[in-house]
Design goal:
Order of helices and strands: HEEEEHEHEEEHEHEHH
Shape: globular
Number of helices: 7
Mean pLDDT: 92
Radius of gyration: 18 Å
Strand order of the largest sheet: 7-6-5-8-9-10
Amino acid sequence: MNIAEGLLKIKAVFLSPEKPFTWASGIKSPIYCDNRLILTSPEVRKIVEEGIARTVKEKFPEAEVLMGTSTAGIAHAAIAAWILDMPMGYVRGGNKDHGRENRIEGRLEKGQKVVVIEDLISTAGSCIEVVEALREAGADVLGVVSIFTYGMKKGLERLKEANVVNYSLCDFDTLCKEAVKEKYITEQEEKKLKKFMTNPSDPSWMEA
């Protein structure tokens, strides 16, 4: 089983071009991603976590610490760190309002080489916030390993501007090809999905 096949099988990425989902922004989307479902599927979880660990080892061999994004990236960072026998921590969405008021949880020394583990990248805003928090704390952020990316233009531009390298285990195009192959969607529906991804704010993809 490949990762795209696994994500589709457990509906961690769900395609519904005929009955689109409504995002918080009001955008009608034919795709919905919930990578938390990976954790409840041992078979898919195994290939995903091994994929994260392998990518860290191959792309960032000098990495010293894994840092998960809060909250969805935490478990994946922990499992991958266990496989790699590496320390890990995570970055909160904001500072705690009590105790030591930490934003970064886990030991992090200045100058340590860090890889961020993220479950999903769309516009990349939250991911870049995590990278910036780690940089402010003195970490040398080597890059990001994510499970799935939409490959949106806005997200790619933001990552480039922030000088952040991302490697995803699966992307939108790969998933679409697998979905057509396994007959989750038709080729015509694939065209709708690709038109949506070109400009999510333009609802004309629904008439394609």
